[in-house]
Specification:
- With 305 residues, this protein is an alpha/beta fold.
- The strands form 2 sheets. A 6-stranded mixed beta sheet has the order 8-7-9-6-5-10, with helices on both faces. Strands 3-2-1-4-11 form a 5-stranded parallel beta sheet, sandwiched between helices.
- Strand 2, helix 3 and strand 3 form a beta-alpha-beta unit.
- Helix 1 crosses helix 11, helix 2 crosses helix 11 and helix 4 runs parallel beside helix 5.
- The longest helix has 20 residues.
- The protein starts with a helix and ends with a helix.
- The mean pLDDT is 95.
Length: 305
Amino acid sequence: MLKNFQHVIQKVKNQKTKKLAVAIAQDRHVLEAIKDADMKGIAQAILVGDKFKIATIAAELDMDLTRFEIVDEANNKKAALKAVELVSSGKADMVMKGLIDTASFLRAVLDKEVGLRTGKLMSHVGVFEISNFDRLIFLTDAAFNMYPEFKDKIDIVNNAAVVAKAVGVEKPKVAAVCAVEVVNPNMPATIDASALSKMSDRGQIKGCIVDGPLALDNALSEESAIHKGVTGPVAGKADIILVPNIEAGNIMYKTLTYAANCKNGGLLVGTSAPVVLTSRADSHESKMYSIALAALVADEINQNR
């Protein structure tokens, strides 16, 4: 099991180098991340976008563009489709959002002709290295599915398990977190959590262990779990935090990002290839970690084909 992003990067270096298609690459933080990823041997990038603007930013960053393939396309819609097509045609292993709004980028990802549809639910997985934890924490879904129904949560769990396994967690422990750790008929999320737990017990959800409802404290803290009498293999030892909705997830994601001593990356899965879907506010370091995670997931997907 990889315990931090340094270990993630080391694992990426030990596998075959993946190619990353970047949609509308003329973004300073994105190019900084691409430069770092190239220097660290994480991924090779194909930059799709306005060549002049890319070159202008690259010059400011002292970035050697001769190391990268550039596809000159000034039209954002066409550039996004071209970046996605590079992946669906096998010329790249993953795709990254650049200087384009999320809705337009996702339209390209879901394009019926060149997109990365699989028929499965797509979901976002955030990965956090938090200073006082001995493991990486996976958070889902804080960015894509707003109010997932029960059947959606099954897919979200399965998607997160793929990411966790790519990072070396053989049988990830999933905590379906709610405001409380008991089933309350007036709180639908606790009922969903209980049903997910029972499905896991019966082997209907494979490759991971799901328990819930768990409150966040007894999902992450063994001391809290013992104090509250919460037992089980997930209590206090969760790898994956399954949030009930986007509001809870988004608040937790941003609280960790801005108020905790941590590093993070994230990606969109459920597609035929990983999608690096970061916020414009994310640092170039966070974007680089996201690329590294995507490279591991791409390798996991390729091995299972």
